Amino acid sequence: MNSKRRYLESVTPHAPFEIANEGDETISLVVVGRPGIFVRLLHDWAAIVGLAIVFLLVTLALSAPLLAPHDPAAQHLAERLKAPSLTFPLGTDNLGRCLLSRLLFGARLSLGFVGVASLLVLLVGVFVGAVSGYAGGFLDAVIMRVVDLVLAFPLLLLALAITGFVGAGIGSVLVGIVSVWWASYARIVRGLVLSLRERPFIEAARAGGVTPIRIITRHVIPNVIPPIVVLASLEMGSLLLAISGLNFLGLGVQPPTAEWGAMLNDGRPFLRSAPQLMIYPGLAISLAVMGFNLLGDGLRDALDPRLR
Amino acid sequence: MFACATDRQAGSEDELIIGVRADDYVVEPLKSKLGMYPLNAQICEPLVRITGEYGIEPLLATRWERHGNTWRFFLRPNVVFSDGQPLTSEAVEYTFARLVKGDRAGIYQHTYLGEYSVSVVDDLTVDLTPERPNQHLLEQLGHANYSIIAPGTEPATLPVGTGPFKLVEYRRGEWLKTERNEHYWGERPGLRMTFRFLPDDTTRVLALQAGEAGMILDVPREQASTLRTQAGMSVIEAPVGRVAAIFLNIHREAPHDLLANKNLRRAIASSIDRRTLIEKVWDGNGELIATIGPRAMLGDYAGLVQGFIIDKERAAHLLAQEGWLPGTDGVRVRNGRRLTLTMIAWPEFDTATLEFIQAQLATSGIELRIVRSPDLASYQARIEAGEFDLDLEAPNQNDANPMFLPALRFYSKSSSKTVRYFAPGSSFDAIIEAGLATDQRDETMRLSAEAQRVLVDEEAIVIPLAGLKRISAMRLGLHGFSPHPSLLNQRWDTISTQR
Amino acid sequence: MKRYVLIRLLSLIPLWLGISMLAFLLSNLAPGDPATVIAHRLSDAPPSEEQIATIRREYHLDDALPVRYARWLGSAARGDLGISYRTKEPVLKELATHFPATLQIACAALVIALAIALPLGVFAAVRRGSWIDHAARAGALLGASLPSYWLAYLLILLFALALGWLPVAGRDGPGALILPALTLGLGTAATLARLTRSSLLEVLGEDFVRTARSKGLSETAVLCRHSLKPALLPVLTVTGIAFGHLLGGAVIVEAIYAWPGVGNLLINSIYDRDYPMIQGFVLFMGTVFTLISAAVDLSYAWIDPRIRYAKKRPIGR
């Protein structure tokens, strides 16, 4: 009985006085008023944890120069692959560099990259997808064909060509990844918009003479954002892993830059002899992904217009 | 951590599965090197064999004579190809004719053989006459490219040779299966070989540990130490086959013109602690060496080349002498220009090695910018364009000619595309020419050593870092494996499970 | 509907043009020269100028870019995709030989992913806030944050080394498919599970669901008849994209498991600057992606009756 009530409360939008009949039972639900978004966010413990994690990581990243006990590039060859100690809180890597310092400095590059890349990918993807889905017809067809083209294109080739052009490094990785990743978002958004387009409130807006652009920005995009936010938060992890993947294939940051994905890749030969070289950056990435996810979920719940 | 899967004996009793790197065979009619190069599966054999000490041994030719520019080879009697055909001079003629047919411009053949003519004297005697006098013909003929194939056959479809093994199945990118050649003239091999292509280093090691491969080649340095301590495994190092060395761009072309200065080059050479590189970064998997090729190549004369030892004070002194003074962030500066150098490297080198060199130079106030190449083609493009100051390589030495490397990379008349960045000049060229002209092996070795002394000690154009030893690992119970410094000349027929 | 399908198929032509042109440009822009690579492959001594020049002549690499592209286009139009520089086999034949392997693991991975993700996602949505929900979310988190090569090595260590049930790598034997498919599938499962859950939650909050519920329908009926279909829409899109990615050659997984699929082919072709192979590959993958996205689009109409393709709706009026 309790679980059923909880369930009903969780799925029905909050509106005053709702009575539902479940078979023989009559349950009355009386719920609340309309709390603001941030208040709702703060009531969701998962979101708080997520926010805390992200906040913590960003702070650590920003204060890396202050917190890191050593220069991340400094090699202490007499102390290679040492276990955690007072001098090296997380131990050292195969060149005797402090793992903690490398993780801290690596956070700047990894998180920074993920932040910028996500933003760009979302911006382009959501806008293109919304326009395509809403417009329909020829424009939709053309845009979707371009999306197909981009999705089918091998990232490695693009990254290699860009590296040849611009030179290697995280900049070219960013350009390469963004130019390919926006496409999947565009597809998903377009799909959502297609069904959204036929909804009564959109119809009403159209009938009321609102311009397409306004419809797209005021009505379509806000409704599309919740599922996209969830996807994007998961994708941040994929973005981090994508850099790591490109490292595996030989492209990416140049030595001696500390970056989580590069550290993960460099730790591969030590899989069995010194697994901590892969475990620490892996954990860092997982932590970041978890934080983004929890936050994203919380945001989704807070932003959902139906739950308002 | 994890115990190994017990007794999962992959393959049958007499089969040895060898995990190797990528499949680089070319299978194109008239150019095919299937089974021969770069992985020599001993399906075919050349006229002579190159030993582990880079000596020459009779193989299909039992003896030879020289008359002027013509070399006469006397073939081993009663040798039969795996398809039953006898080994006669006709086979030799067919082999060389095919090589020319597949490649009239002489591109794909091992260098310096150039044009030649082959004539049959009798069934077991054949003459080979190079167009230009070639003192080192024998050493080149030991290369697997010149393996003798059966008349009428085409390796692209099926390589037929006189070797201890014959081809059963080749699946590109997956495996090369052989079985023992019943007609083999020599001692019957202990096991038959199946080479599995496993390009990922870690997977290869895991395959050995899981029992899916009885032996693996090209064990990465970092994993060698782990395997050494593992029960049931033995790790074997071949003698030094290649030397990892930094080549310095002495060509005066901006912006990579700094290393035209000899003192700067010497300073760099004195800044790198090679012993620490080998002992710490490479876990002992390397050999301290001063020459640019294996010492065995130079015989008694290897000691002529001294190399540089780590001497930071000397480096600092040399740099200051040239006007490079420490700047605010540690990097030396001269007339407003920072001492920044660019290093490119063969893709095979791990990041740790590159970062080590970078850190070493940093202590001398040199800022090293590393440009990694994801693949060979990118690397080639960069080196040919001269976009580097330092170039980290480990050139192959697959033939027994001591003059090979110095001539190829530093002789100004060499056909190599990159020689203009490294060639010292005419006095050096004279040494090379003398070495190429003599037919006394002892003299060749001496001259090669002299050439290397100039390159390494005098001019510091090359900084040898460490000798690389190919590392293989195998399960205990396998015997008879004698690692050859060059993979191309590795013998598999001596491996067996019996002592 | 039929017209729609026809139009989608016709749209392959501009796609082929676009993608082949892009690939051609980019491969030629990438630093490096196929002639050098070919020369190196055939002999261990670094090649000389004339040697490279001869090879370039043989492969017509010195002709102008537009000329070479036009030449390629001409033969491609006749169905001849050329010969691979690396293997000297016809490009089409190489693709045909390697594709089945990739198709195998892509399908297997997708099956695994859906088998895990759909039930888990539905369950998590329906029992929101329960331990299953949290477990599913945690699992999805883990699946999404592990790099594929790490997961691959872990699986190999567990199933091949410790337990000895499955082979380490390669494509021989029935068990060889499992580890690569699992590696690929788990990552995809994570995304799909999350999406299924959130998407279903959305739908369950919809008006028409409330209406159905208030009409007295049981929860199961509400779920199955009314909620699942619309919830599947975004899931379908992502599945389509994921399948496309899987087919595009799970490059890293194929490299680790020495799986002779199209991904391996692609890496080798790119590293060797094997232009004809690269061109052939992008053409092929472009077609595959288009077909998949067309199939996904068609299924939209089936799932959500409100979407129609037959008539063009006037916009902005």
Protein described:
The complex is a heterotrimer of chains A (308), B (499) and C (317). Chain A is mainly alpha-helical. Chain A contains 12 helices and 2 strands. A two-stranded antiparallel sheet of chain A has the order 1-2. In chain A, a hairpin with a 2-residue loop joins strand 1 and strand 2. The two termini of chain B are 32 Å apart. Chain B has 13 helices and 21 strands. In chain B, 26% of the residues lie in helices and 21% in strands. The relative contact order of chain B is 0.16. With 317 residues, chain C is an all-alpha fold. Chain C has a domain at 100-260: Orthogonal Bundle (MetI-like fold), CATH 1.10.3720.10. Chain C has 14 helices and no strands. The chains are: A mainly alpha (308), B alpha+beta (499), C mainly alpha (317). Chains in contact: A-B, A-C, B-C. At the A-C interface, helix 1, helix 6, helix 7, helix 8 and helix 10 of A face helix 2, helix 7, helix 8, helix 9 and helix 10 of C.
Layout: helices, strands, pairs:
The complex is a heterotrimer of chains A (308), B (499) and C (317).
Chain A: H1 2-11, E1 18-22, E2 25-29, H2 37-43, H3 45-62, H4 64-67, H5 99-135, H6 137-152, H7 155-166, H8 170-196, H9 200-207, H10 212-248, H11 260-266, H12 276-303
Antiparallel strand pairs in A: 1-2
Helix pairs in contact in A: 2-12, 3-5, 3-12, 5-6, 5-8, 5-10, 5-12, 6-8, 7-8, 8-10, 10-11, 10-12, 11-12
Chain B: E1 15-20, E2 48-50, E3 56-58, E4 61-67, E5 70-75, H1 89-101, E6 116-122, E7 125-130, H2 137-141, E8 165-171, E9 175-180, E10 192-197, H3 201-210, E11 215-216, H4 221-228, E12 233-237, E13 242-248, H5 262-271, H6 274-281, H7 312-321, E14 325-326, E15 332-334, E16 337-338, E17 340-345, H8 351-363, E18 367-371, H9 376-385, E19 390-393, H10 404-410, H11 419-422, H12 426-437, H13 441-458, E20 462-468, E21 471-475
Parallel strand pairs in B: 1-10, 1-11, 17-18, 17-19
Antiparallel strand pairs in B: 2-3, 4-5, 5-7, 6-7, 8-9, 9-10, 11-21, 12-21, 13-19, 13-20, 14-15, 15-16
Chain C: H1 2-10, H2 12-29, H3 34-42, H4 49-58, H5 65-77, H6 91-126, H7 131-145, H8 148-162, H9 178-204, H10 207-214, H11 219-247, H12 251-256, H13 262-271, H14 275-303
